Fold:
Amino acid sequence: MKLTIIGTGYVGLVTGTCFAEVGHQVICVDNNEEKVKLLKSGGMPIYEPGLEELVKKNVEAGRLKFTSSTKEGVEESDVIFIAVPTPPQPDGSVDLSFIEGVSREIAAAMTSYKIVVDKSTVPVKTGEKVSETIKRYCKAKVDFDVVSNPEFLREGFAVDDFMKPDRVVIGVLSQRPVAAMREVYEPYNAPIIFTDINSAELIKHAANSFLALKISYINAVSVICEASGANVQEVANGMGMDIRIGRRFLDASLGFGGSCFPKDLSAFIQISEQLGYDFRLLKEVQRINSEQMDRFVKKITETLWVLKGKKIGVLGLAFKQNTDDVRMSPAIDLCLRLQKEGATLRVHDPKAMEKARSVLENVTYVDDMNEVAEGCDALIVATEWPQFKKLDLERVRKSLTHPIMFDGRNLFDAKEMEQLGFIYKSIGR
Ligand code: UDX
Structure:
């Protein structure tokens, strides 16, 4: 099929590439000329495991191309996907101006029937607005259908998640776009569920909020574990063996972050309020998350006492493993708080140092993870990169002025760390 994706961020670029990979003919559109130029010359604007190779392969096969012209994208395809950012606003609601702008551009370029699919995460009832907008701005007065097709991929695992989705959700208002949408997703062999548009939009917010709730739940349990001497990982393992609960997203941490969970929670709370419901449960999820960070900082200050003049090593800047994304990263938040208290920092991240430089200044960026601890009063693990488990712990212990480690991701075994001579503090154990 001929498909156009508007927006080449984490979702748009992965979507376009993975559509091309199964044989569709794809045009990716972005209004950022620099980004289009970079992609055309074989460069990558983001780090996502496996993506670069797939882009290269599909460009060479002639199935994937890039342009900054929405008009070209709309003319050449029958199905147009919108994958532009929906950033948060100060009051927690979502800024839908990119969605509105793109809807107008699509409308202006339409000269025949099109299926316009929203992939960006949007509050319920946005599809109705997109439909009204296209109707208003389409001079040619041609037929079209708006479809909601929320994306559930995780950064760091995006290609895999896209190629092997648990389910594909497609919200429609009529039968007309159903066959085409089925054809788009047929090659993935995944269950497809068709709903109305409002339900599809809600599924995304409800799913992400539930996952955030799961993390806050285990983080709250971690507090009880610390107070009672239990081990949160053992509790999570035991809980997770109940298939109704499941083990995933039960890893206690210094809190969740990223461009989705915090934003989607706020947006869901906000839209619920507009629809007349005070979603107190989700407000509590947010509160537990920010308290989790407060508690971690307190753990550090209780041990090191005065942070002014202390040198601290930090492993991890990305909001989670396998990504270079530092948006709403708990690790960056932590660094800024430690800096504010007067600590000087030596930091390392396997992929996110370049992006971190614009939000985290006056720190020493260290290329080798084993050198971060050098001359530091303590070392902190802030992101769950699996390679941190391979730290040369003996060397790290010797290079610290005091062998103190704060593990915000429970990467190490507490007993082993103590045997190695560390004063080791983690979450809920
Ligand atoms: C999330 C959803 O998982 C995905 O389905 C949706 O499409 C976009 O939002 P993402 O933000 O890429 O994906 O990351 P995810 O892997 O869900 O992690 C989010 C945050 O939760 C990270 O900061 C991570 O470190 C944290 N987390 C995750 C925990 O603290 N504990 C866990 O058990 C799992």
The domain at 2-190 is CATH 3.40.50.720 (Rossmann fold). The chain has two domains: 2-190, 210-425. The chain has a mean pLDDT of 97. The first helix runs from residue 10 to 21.
